[in-house]
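S., here's the first fold you wanted:
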Amino acid sequence: MGKLVGIYLRISDDREGRELGVERQEQDCRKLAASEGDTVVDIYKDNDIGASTRSKKPRPDYKRLLADAKRGRIQKITSYTSNRLTRRPREHEGQIELAETYGTEFRYVASPSFDLNTAAGRRIARILAANDAGEAEDISERVCREKLQALERGEWIGGARPFGYQGTIRDAYGNVINREEVGIKVIEHEAAMIKDAVQRVISGESLYAICQRWTASGVPTPRGSARWYPATLKRILTRPRNAGLMEHRGVVLENVKAIWPSIITDDEYLAVRSILLDNEHRTSYRGSRSLKWLGTNLYRCDVCSDLMRSAGISSSGSGGEKHAAYRCKHGLHLAVRAAPIDSIVNTYVCARLIKHGANLIEVPDGDAVDLRTQATSLRTRIRELEDMLGDGELSRAAFLRQRNKIILKLDEVNTDLASRASSSVLSGVADAPNPAEVFMNPELTPIERRRAIVDALCTVTILKGKKGRKPRHLEGDYRDRIHIEKKDAA
């Protein structure tokens, strides 16, 4: 009499799984069930999940399979091989308990089938379990060695598809197509999005505004989501891979060059990381969802030197008409209307743009070249120290002392390079034929970038108003409520 069968399918990254694929496993298991007169009740599938002691991923369908066997929904479990079910000795013991307690049978297409209700069958199962676990650990050690060697060669060692680069593509049988292009080949339209976003961040635009643009473009995230979020975008824009650098466990490998093409330059990479990861640049307006006023979290209070926030205040008591204003964050030190203050700041910035134009963004190329040369020399010195430590010519204490000094200097050079790349906040505006018109046009220069330009050209401080009522003709004059200090953008 036939049995009620549950077929378990699993594919992992080992050779067997790639060659067979879950579809072919299912076909062979169904043939075996039909040849024995069994009825297939359900298919249980865990795709691309390992079953060894080293695997950390849960197997939801394996758990469902065992639960269905315990409640009598299935009487027999069929799989392609015994190690498709598991490579873990503890789970083998669970299968033995399932057979002894519930009478569940196990059948395999390409592995010996044995009766777990007999001592001989349990002995064979345990021997195979130990062998499968040992084989899995051998595979794990070999894979670790191969990954370390691949890192030293600058190769991609796998993981989630990096946005901007080709991901893994499999055929119907689970075989990887064009394996040599995985993680290496640039996807041009995604790379163009990264380049554009990096320039927008450097120019002062917020991550939220860029995410809105990316979501509207219809290009999904690497995980297939239609909506982009600032945290996801930030991870993509600040990864070393974009500049052709190797990263392992959060550390950039200084002496290894990646084999894949870079999407952005080293200077752009340093600049975008400086903006998005440096605490000094983590001002709230970069992620604001409703930026309307130029000076929010940009202008400073003359009383406490803290940043000002925007708020609505009444023009005359509680019943008066409300208008936008800047208030001190820490209390009621002072408050001032937003529109006339912004008008004064806009006038000042436009005047500087018209007067100095492209001179505001001139950065001597020779200086940047010298800094890159200096950075390369410092990295070479670190590698020389590592060799001296390995050859026993240098003690570990001396190595650490000298290396730390060089790293501090390298950080200074990288910061300088980043600031030079960040000077492009003025590019396209200061060097335009009519820079003031471009600056004031919200379509050409979004408010995030206008704020960044203001921040690059001046420091704005809001002053306390003088006591007493102003003459009627001076009521709209707010020049005595603002102090603008010039910055040298270049």
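And the second, which I think is the more interesting of the pair:
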Amino acid sequence: MSPSLGVPSGLPHLVHDAFVRAKTAGDLSFFPTQVALLRVHGVPFQLRFAPALAKKPKAAKPAGDKDKSAQPPTPFNPFEDPPPGLMVIPDVCGGTHRLVLNKFAISQDHSILATTTFRPQAHVLEATDLAAAYTCIEAYADAGEELFVFFNSGSHSGASQPHRHLQLLPVAKMREGLEDGGSGWDVLVDRLIEGKSGEVPFYVAAARLSPGSTPSSLHTTYLDLYRQARAAAQGTSAVIATGDVDTTAEESGDVPASISYNLALTKETMAIIPRTAEGASVTSDGGSLSLNGTVLAGTALVKNEAEWDALKSDSSRLEEVLAQIGVPLTRRTAAL
């Protein structure tokens, strides 16, 4: 790795050591999760029970009718001035980003690439965002490890913070708890791009990345996939803008993205799923499953025991949720 990119060699060990220190000090919340492996149309999906995520604080709501004149509190921004105990690398890619640990980790060594100055999560990504993420992916690859990066954008995507950030999950840590070391599970987007058997019930725009991809080529690929996803989403609830979309302003980042979507990035693959819903009910009393960008890894996170039991006992419930969160394959405008 080039020193100018701000990512030192041995990045996996650096992140892991920081994670262990932060967990020991109580700076982050992480507990081992129960896991089951389900299959949807032949595609292996992890189902992980992570009750600690139910304790994750939500953004403040606007003032109610009793005090309409009151100004809603400014939402807490965890990336504006990250706690020292969560900091991993303060300066990535010339200072555009910083690498911090996720305070509410869904797996060991769960980290986040956040912009050092506020950039909107709801706007399209810039070349520097993708360069920072891919630099980390290559740093893990140099150490013989895989890294899965995902990005949530829009009201249906599972996004919870307005400050732009991408989330990083070491694939080896995502396999923990699975039988036979996780040999029966692969990262979904890599599986699809390789043409392995099975098909997901939602549209995905995906592309294979060339070795030595540059920031410019990564951004070109991203915009191409975003356009495919936007086209596939036309006429569905994935479209969140009203009126005609100024695609030039949108793609330059001057206005919010017109669709809700998740992005996934690995060393070999980039993929985007346009989202029409964050989740769907899985129990008779309204218990639901919400999905974010980890769905493109083939992972579903469950926060409550009732939903965990319902999904684990009947994999068709997971298939029904997956069929409702995106654009049905019958509407897709391009093949993988």
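Why I say that: The radius of gyration is 19 Å. The longest strand covers residues 34-40.

Talk tomorrow,
H.
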